[in-house]
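Researcher: We're teaching a course module on how sequence relates to structure. For the next exercise, students receive a sequence and then see the predicted structure as tokens, so they can try to spot secondary structure elements on their own. Here is the exercise chain.
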Amino acid sequence: MTLENYIAFIKAHHTIIVIVLAGLLCFHFGEKYFDHVAVVDDQKAQLAQQKLQTQVEDNQALAQTNAALQAQVAADRQSLDAAMKSRQVVVVQQQKSDQALPLPDLASRWAQLVNLPPSDFQATPTGIVANVDAAHATVNALDSLQATMATLKDTQTELANDDKVIGGLQAQIVGLNKQIADADDANKKEIAALKADCRKGKMKWFKVGFVTGFVSGLAVGHVK
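Model: And here is the predicted structure for the students to work with:
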């Protein structure tokens, strides 16, 4: 084709050419815009992923701390149980020894236990006589012992409850980590699906616009 033929072709189809060029131009800038949006979305997704990862790491660190605390509590409890059993053995042995003591020695042992002078207790052929102060001190010591035993029982219950609480916290953290991981996976898949739909949509509308412009250009050219 000669230059004149090209010029004639352009003049005859200038409307179509303008529409096609306009469509290409719109597609070019539209693609640039969507690419920019995709980059921004990727950056947001990466920041969200970093935030999630930080949260997961914090939860894991907390789980490790709780596990160490639970182990420490368990070790302390075992140590306490061992000490209690050891003391109980000593008490039983002492009780057997006290059971065989002569009355004067038993009176001295009594005075020793309530931290009073031995003279406050007098051994008789049939028993031991304690003065008023010694009697009060003995009753007070028994009252304190009863309170101590109740406190010890409460402490054991509290330790058992602490074990349950720590175990529950660990289970909760494991569940939270799984929930975060599942949410992260779902978000990634959703973002991937949205990007795929966006790309499909861009191509679809470009084709529709291009065909529409082309047909319109033919119609206009035909009318002219």
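Model: If you want an answer key for the exercise: Helices lie at 3-12, 14-99, 103-113, 132-223. Residues 3-223 form one domain.
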